[in-house]
Write a structure and sequence with these properties.
mainly beta; 7-stranded antiparallel beta sheet; 26 strands
Amino acid sequence: MKTKNILSVTKPESPHMVGDGFRVFNLIPGDYSMKEMDPFIMLDYNSKYNFAPSLIPRGVGAHPHKGFETVTIAYKGRVEHHDSSGNGGVIAEGDVQWMSAASGILHKEFHEKEWSKKGGEFQMVQLWVNLPANDKKTAPKYQSLRHQDFFKVSLPNDAGVVEVIAGEFEGHKGIASTFTPIHLYNLKLKKGGKLALNFPSEYSTALLMIEGSAKINYDQVVPEDNFVRFKKDGESVFVEALSDALILVMSGKPIGEPIASYGPFVMNTQQEIREAIDDFNMGRFGYLE
């Protein structure tokens, strides 16, 4: 198979706060348009950060979303979620929350109450996944994906483990339900562990180095917290861990539709953006304190 050549390696440099509970680096779209990584239209990375204890949980109050899905992956710390569809729960370490905002929803996210009292190291990813035009009209839904339920594929030669969140790896399917073809894994490699990942050439593909460092495609050293994007010119990505490593792997089929965005709304046209704003202002996304 032909190698997917590296398009860019990004070192996070300028964090910003989302509410008072998430200190994030924006990696998608960065300095390029949302269409570049379609269907992945936004990625905020809260690299390891120590939050002091707080009796009042930090986070983000009620806010709207429409037209896409939010995927929150917890690596360290615990987050509590509530939304206007009546869903809620705690995202513990290793868990994933997959929320389809679709036709419109309000939600809020805070450090889990008991975790907040103790404080500590916090590390999260929030990925936005776009929806095709027809699916933007569907009712919101919520998937609470527990780490204990992920299919974990042991690699040959005791090289490590692939935790399949969505899509499939070597015939083993993830538990997440997706609207379009998406592969999402946590790749855990031991030092010296090697793996060739294979995805269709037209898929948007990227790696986020959550822990440790690795050599990508035989000669590109990628340190911890760096983000690697690949060109759509091949099928194979080769990874060799230079230390024990944890890597978030994402690859998805582009939807290929027009993208119009405004803050928490991602639609296909500016007229649909205006309609989304009107729906929110008229209270059509429900109610959430």
